Amino acid sequence: MGAEDHRQKAGHGPVTVAIVTVSDTRTPDTDGNKSYIEARMTELGHHVAAYRLIKDEPDQVAAALNELTAMPTVQIILFNGGTGISPRDTTFDVISRLLEKPLPGFGELFRMLSYNEVGAAAMLSRATAGVYQNTLVVSMPGSTNAVQTALEKLIIPEINHLAWEIVRKS
Fold first, then answer.
1. Among 3, 52, 71, 145, which residue's beta carbon has the most beta carbons within 10 A?
2. Is 137 exposed, middle or buried (0-12, 13-18, 19+ CB in 10 A)?
3. Structural domain harbouring 80
4. Cβ neighbours, 10 Å, residue 132
5. Cα 47 from Cα 59, distance rounded (Å)
């Protein structure tokens, strides 16, 4: 059975997501990434069950991850921010340690797509994804362009397939 067969079995029903913005400077009023992700998910018939705006602190990243994976309706958590290499960027460090099934292809594809847009600076991104507590966790950079690239080119085309794969029995 190929990827297209899996996409068909996954269907096109609504997927429930949570959004986590990791930022030391944004506020709910200035969080354009949340607005963009929420609008696109709603436009496509998906549901946003939760939103968190947290500081780039390891304990806050871990707490948000654990709180949202404990919500039985949340299928996918979309983190944005904290994936660079500066001392304040800790999102990747926390999430990568906790992932039970990493999806290295997400980060690889994201950096490939980013290279076409920003050149060699794409190597600074530590975007990652994987499964934790039966929930897909995606961690992407916090720039608006990066969020749009990840969402439009990687996540949206496979969102139902991704959600289905995590829970399918055979």
1. 52
2. buried
3. 14-167
4. 18
5. 27
End-to-end CA distance of the chain: 11
Q: How many CA atoms lie within 13 Å of 29's alpha carbon, on the beta-carbon side?
A: 0
Per-residue pLDDT of the chain (170 residues; tens, 9 = 90+): 677 766 676 677 899 999 999 999 999 999 999 999 999 999 999 999 999 999 999 999 999 999 999 999 999 999 999 999 999 999 999 999 999 999 999 999 999 999 999 999 999 999 999 999 999 999 999 999 999 999 999 999 999 999 999 988 66
CATH value at residue 111:
3.40.980.10
Is 50 a member of any domain?
A: yes
21 is a domain residue: yes
8 A C-beta contact, residue 65 and residue 134: no
